[in-house]
Amino acid sequence: MMGANRLSVSVPAKINLHLEILGQRRDGFHELRTLFQSIDLFDRLAAEEAPPGEMVLEVDPNGAVASDETNLVLRAARLLAEQMGVSTGTRLILSKNIPVGGGLGGGSADAAAALVLLDRLWGCNLDGLGLHRLAATLGSDVPFFLHGGLALGIGRGDEVFPLPGEVELATVVAAPKVCVSTTEVYRSYDEQLTSHRQKGNLYAFAAGLRGKLDWRAMTNELEEIVVRSWPEVGEGLQVLRSSSPLHASLSGSGAASFAVFDDPAAARRAADKLPADWFVHVGSTLPRRSAGLVVEDDVMEVGDGSDRSAHQPGQGWQDSSVREHRGR
């Protein structure tokens, strides 16, 4: 087919280095304290103009996620169009690499990408606060992806404070073939909720009173519940922790778990121990300069099945032999 000029943006997944829950809020959400960290696993979203009134989403690979109105990309597009009075038609193409339902923020990342990409395509020129306001209405994690890197999330997770002191570390992300219900996990957590003591070392780091992360203070308070109900997740965590990482934990409410290492070779050795049919990604954390949503001119063959995620802004560890993912 003929080539088409379009704009595109790559958006990285996240892991939660730390996640604690202070209780349920009056609005029904949970009050969280979390440390978000971008990693070098990317979805890519492209957009081009279409006939007026037409708003369509195509997904590659086909069926990886829904392409109807339940997809956050279309919800973000319609929200921005409504808020800014845009009637221009748009064709969106989502190249999906981040596992669905893994606690890696793929849907939220794609929503943030849609806001930034279409703000540029439609010439809306929203400032950061305007984008953040729309992002927060789409989901608790969405505002983080407007920042990337290492950040403290409070409130529902939608109040985001980028943090200094970023370091690039090797990572392994592992997701078994199970579907974890976030609603069920939080319901179980509420049923067993006891008194909570906040982690002082975490807030000392966030306030700049500690020079580096205290990995011993990092935890995920949903992990015990998830492992109990989905034992495959626990098996993956056991494998990762047996490889002596700096830190290993569940990401979000799962089903993905992760480990961080200061040695890329150790990350690969840990990944080799995981089941062959799991999704496994070996890569690195991303500093903010490499995790930002940078809109680019994008020329590709429409419908040619090419790899639309080949160009990724920011590569973390420069040893390309360390970076892989398998088990799609």
Range of helix content: 25-40%
The first-level CATH class is given as Alpha Beta
Number of continuous helical runs: 9
- Low-pLDDT runs: 301-323
CATH topology: Ribosomal Protein S5, domain 2
Secondary-structure-derived class: alpha+beta
Query: What is the chain-wise order of helices and strands?
Result: EEEHEHHEEEHHHHEEHEHEE
Instruction: Name the CATH architecture.
Output: 2-Layer Sandwich
Number of domains: 1
Distance, first to last CA: 28 Å
Brief overview:
The protein is 27% helix and 29% strand. With 328 residues, the protein is α+β, with helices and mostly antiparallel strands. The radius of gyration is 19 Å and the shape is globular.
Please give a structural write-up.
By secondary structure, the chain is an alpha+beta fold. About 7% of the residues have low confidence. It is built from nine helices and twelve strands. It is globular.
Ordered list of secondary-structure elements with their pairings:
Elements: E1 3-24, E2 30-50, E3 55-60, H1 72-84, E4 89-95, H2 106-121, H3 128-138, E5 150-155, E6 159-162, E7 170-175, H4 182-192, H5 200-206, H6 223-229, H7 231-241, E8 247-250, E9 257-261, H8 264-272, E10 279-284, H9 288-291, E11 296-301, E12 324-326
Parallel strand pairs: 3-4
Antiparallel strand pairs: 1-2, 1-11, 2-4, 2-5, 5-6, 7-9, 7-10, 8-9, 10-12
